[in-house]
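Intended use. Records like the one below are meant for learning the mapping from a protein sequence to its folded structure. Do not use them to infer anything beyond what is encoded.
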Amino acid sequence: MTENVAKWMLRGLVLSLALALLAPMAFASHYRLAYLEFIDASVVQALEAVGIQTTEDLLARAATAEDRRRLSEETGVSELEILVLVRLAELLQVEGIGPRTAQLLRAAGVVSVADLASRNPEELALQLSAVNAVEQLTGIDPSPENLTEWIAGAGSVPIQVE
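Structure written out for the chain above:
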Protein backbone atom coordinates (compact mmCIF):
# COMPACT_ATOMS: atom_id res chain seq x y z
CA MET A 1 0.00 0.00 0.00
CA THR A 2 1.39 3.37 -0.90
CA GLU A 3 1.89 6.06 1.70
CA ASN A 4 -0.76 8.33 0.09
CA VAL A 5 -3.40 5.58 0.09
CA ALA A 6 -2.65 4.83 3.73
CA LYS A 7 -3.01 8.53 4.62
CA TRP A 8 -6.36 8.79 2.82
CA MET A 9 -7.62 5.65 4.54
CA LEU A 10 -6.55 7.01 7.93
CA ARG A 11 -8.21 10.37 7.20
CA GLY A 12 -11.40 8.56 6.19
CA LEU A 13 -11.37 6.57 9.41
CA VAL A 14 -10.80 9.69 11.51
CA LEU A 15 -13.60 11.51 9.67
CA SER A 16 -15.98 8.57 10.15
CA LEU A 17 -15.23 8.45 13.87
CA ALA A 18 -15.69 12.21 14.20
CA LEU A 19 -19.04 12.09 12.42
CA ALA A 20 -20.17 9.20 14.60
CA LEU A 21 -19.28 11.15 17.72
CA LEU A 22 -20.98 14.33 16.52
CA ALA A 23 -24.11 12.65 15.19
CA PRO A 24 -27.26 13.04 17.30
CA MET A 25 -27.02 10.43 19.98
CA ALA A 26 -29.97 8.86 21.69
CA PHE A 27 -29.93 8.00 25.33
CA ALA A 28 -32.88 7.09 27.50
CA SER A 29 -35.56 9.76 26.96
CA HIS A 30 -33.39 11.92 24.71
CA TYR A 31 -34.59 10.92 21.25
CA ARG A 32 -35.42 13.61 18.72
CA LEU A 33 -39.02 13.14 17.64
CA ALA A 34 -38.09 13.67 13.99
CA TYR A 35 -35.89 10.54 14.16
CA LEU A 36 -38.64 8.25 15.49
CA GLU A 37 -40.18 6.28 12.64
CA PHE A 38 -43.40 5.62 14.51
CA ILE A 39 -44.39 9.31 14.69
CA ASP A 40 -46.12 10.73 11.64
CA ALA A 41 -44.27 13.72 10.15
CA SER A 42 -47.34 15.96 10.54
CA VAL A 43 -47.45 15.16 14.26
CA VAL A 44 -43.73 15.90 14.58
CA GLN A 45 -44.27 19.26 12.84
CA ALA A 46 -47.20 20.13 15.10
CA LEU A 47 -45.21 19.28 18.24
CA GLU A 48 -42.09 21.08 17.04
CA ALA A 49 -44.21 24.18 16.33
CA VAL A 50 -44.87 24.43 20.08
CA GLY A 51 -41.26 23.73 21.08
CA ILE A 52 -41.37 19.97 21.59
CA GLN A 53 -38.43 18.41 19.77
CA THR A 54 -37.41 15.45 21.94
CA THR A 55 -39.02 12.69 23.94
CA GLU A 56 -37.75 14.48 27.02
CA ASP A 57 -39.63 17.65 25.95
CA LEU A 58 -42.74 15.56 25.36
CA LEU A 59 -42.56 13.99 28.82
CA ALA A 60 -42.13 17.42 30.40
CA ARG A 61 -45.09 18.92 28.51
CA ALA A 62 -47.56 16.02 28.53
CA ALA A 63 -47.23 14.30 31.91
CA THR A 64 -50.77 14.98 33.13
CA ALA A 65 -54.18 14.64 31.54
CA GLU A 66 -54.57 18.42 31.73
CA ASP A 67 -51.20 18.90 30.02
CA ARG A 68 -52.25 16.54 27.22
CA ARG A 69 -55.58 18.35 26.82
CA ARG A 70 -53.82 21.71 26.46
CA LEU A 71 -51.22 20.28 24.12
CA SER A 72 -53.95 18.76 21.99
CA GLU A 73 -55.66 22.14 21.72
CA GLU A 74 -52.36 23.85 20.81
CA THR A 75 -51.32 21.30 18.18
CA GLY A 76 -54.47 19.70 16.83
CA VAL A 77 -53.02 16.28 17.72
CA SER A 78 -55.58 14.13 19.54
CA GLU A 79 -55.20 13.60 23.27
CA LEU A 80 -55.16 9.84 22.69
CA GLU A 81 -52.29 10.09 20.20
CA ILE A 82 -50.38 12.32 22.60
CA LEU A 83 -50.95 9.80 25.40
CA VAL A 84 -49.68 6.93 23.25
CA LEU A 85 -46.58 8.95 22.30
CA VAL A 86 -45.85 10.05 25.85
CA ARG A 87 -46.18 6.43 27.05
CA LEU A 88 -43.70 5.35 24.36
CA ALA A 89 -41.39 8.18 25.49
CA GLU A 90 -41.78 6.88 29.02
CA LEU A 91 -40.67 3.38 27.92
CA LEU A 92 -37.64 4.91 26.22
CA GLN A 93 -36.44 6.03 29.65
CA VAL A 94 -35.62 2.41 30.51
CA GLU A 95 -31.97 1.70 29.77
CA GLY A 96 -31.66 -0.70 26.85
CA ILE A 97 -35.06 0.06 25.32
CA GLY A 98 -34.87 1.82 22.00
CA PRO A 99 -37.63 3.01 19.69
CA ARG A 100 -38.27 -0.30 17.93
CA THR A 101 -38.31 -2.22 21.19
CA ALA A 102 -40.70 0.33 22.68
CA GLN A 103 -42.97 -0.19 19.67
CA LEU A 104 -42.75 -3.95 20.11
CA LEU A 105 -43.58 -3.71 23.80
CA ARG A 106 -46.54 -1.47 22.98
CA ALA A 107 -47.75 -3.86 20.25
CA ALA A 108 -47.58 -6.69 22.80
CA GLY A 109 -49.80 -4.75 25.19
CA VAL A 110 -47.24 -3.13 27.49
CA VAL A 111 -48.78 0.32 27.92
CA SER A 112 -46.48 2.01 30.44
CA VAL A 113 -43.34 1.73 32.50
CA ALA A 114 -45.43 0.64 35.49
CA ASP A 115 -47.01 -2.07 33.34
CA LEU A 116 -43.57 -3.27 32.21
CA ALA A 117 -42.36 -3.35 35.82
CA SER A 118 -45.18 -5.74 36.71
CA ARG A 119 -44.53 -8.26 33.93
CA ASN A 120 -43.07 -11.77 34.09
CA PRO A 121 -40.00 -11.93 31.79
CA GLU A 122 -40.61 -15.46 30.49
CA GLU A 123 -44.28 -14.80 29.68
CA LEU A 124 -43.47 -11.43 28.13
CA ALA A 125 -40.72 -13.01 26.00
CA LEU A 126 -43.30 -15.39 24.51
CA GLN A 127 -45.74 -12.54 23.86
CA LEU A 128 -43.08 -10.38 22.23
CA SER A 129 -41.88 -13.24 20.06
CA ALA A 130 -45.42 -13.91 18.82
CA VAL A 131 -46.08 -10.23 18.08
CA ASN A 132 -42.68 -9.74 16.44
CA ALA A 133 -43.25 -12.76 14.18
CA VAL A 134 -46.24 -10.91 12.71
CA GLU A 135 -45.21 -7.24 13.00
CA GLN A 136 -41.43 -7.68 12.46
CA LEU A 137 -40.61 -4.59 14.52
CA THR A 138 -37.19 -5.77 15.68
CA GLY A 139 -34.59 -8.00 14.05
CA ILE A 140 -34.13 -10.09 17.17
CA ASP A 141 -36.63 -10.97 19.85
CA PRO A 142 -35.66 -9.69 23.30
CA SER A 143 -34.39 -12.50 25.51
CA PRO A 144 -35.81 -13.24 28.96
CA GLU A 145 -32.49 -11.94 30.32
CA ASN A 146 -32.98 -8.60 28.51
CA LEU A 147 -36.53 -8.45 29.76
CA THR A 148 -35.44 -9.17 33.33
CA GLU A 149 -33.07 -6.18 33.12
CA TRP A 150 -35.70 -3.93 31.55
CA ILE A 151 -38.34 -4.95 34.08
CA ALA A 152 -35.93 -4.17 36.93
CA GLY A 153 -34.97 -0.90 35.22
CA ALA A 154 -38.62 0.03 34.76
CA GLY A 155 -39.06 -0.18 38.49
CA SER A 156 -36.46 2.53 38.99
CA VAL A 157 -37.67 4.95 36.29
CA PRO A 158 -39.52 7.88 37.77
CA ILE A 159 -43.09 7.51 36.60
CA GLN A 160 -43.86 10.85 35.03
CA VAL A 161 -47.07 10.13 33.21
CA GLU A 162 -50.40 9.97 34.97
